[in-house]
Design goal:
Elements: E1 2-7, E2 12-19, E3 22-30, H1 36-50, E4 58-66, H2 70-87, E5 91-95, H3 96-103, E6 110-116, E7 121-130, E8 133-144, H4 145-152, E9 159-164, H5 166-173, E10 180-181, E11 184-186, H6 196-208, H7 227-239
Parallel strand pairs: 1-4, 4-5, 6-9, 9-11
Antiparallel strand pairs: 1-2, 2-3, 6-7, 7-8, 10-11
Helix pairs in contact: 1-2
Length: about 240
Amino acid sequence: MNILGIDTSAKTLNLAVVNDDEMVVDYRINTVERTHSALILPLLNSMLNLNGIKLKQIEGIAVSIGPGSFTGLRIGLSTAKGLSFALSIPIVGINTLESYAFRWMDLPGKLCPLIRARRGEYYFAVFNKKHNSLHIIKGYQCADWNKIKDELLRYDNKVFIFGCGLEDILKEEKVEKSKNIENIHFITSNKNIANAANIALIGEKKILENTYDDIYTLSPFYIKRPAAEIKKEKDDSKDI
């Protein structure tokens, strides 16, 4: 079945289509000064037309729900919900950190995906692989690199770390050739960003198992509250 994957969690807008556990097409564009909202539908239309796929042939949608860019996640999710409703097809929300870990799940050790947040902090989690599936052993959190490093150094076996913002950590640690600090191994790759294909692959499995989400209750996964909400709450309290 054709499953559309949507990832708007970072600056790179990424769309993909998978079918029967195989990637059909993977499109990505760096939004730079443009917004996800201005590009997502034209990019989708172009991707489908160039690959001879009709919109009605999409049988399910998997979308990143976070953590990540607050605005980007809302745009991706609202687009996915609109398509799901219009086409009467199932929708699945996929945690962005889980999809990052899914990409590297064959590595021989624990997996620590991370995503750059604000003010020198990172969203992260730690996963283990059991019976060909991912199991979370350190829940979704937000912390600075020193706290994350202290957590990872506690583990006896290898921990592989990867994701969006890793280059900042490498500069801070001055890690170049060996790409490791004791048991922490850094995975530097352009595959660390834009993850729609893996989101779609995870989503396809869930849809086939009939474990998709409710279009009306599916919402972004925020580890930290958006700054706009905090500001509004403060402004409202001043008016009381």
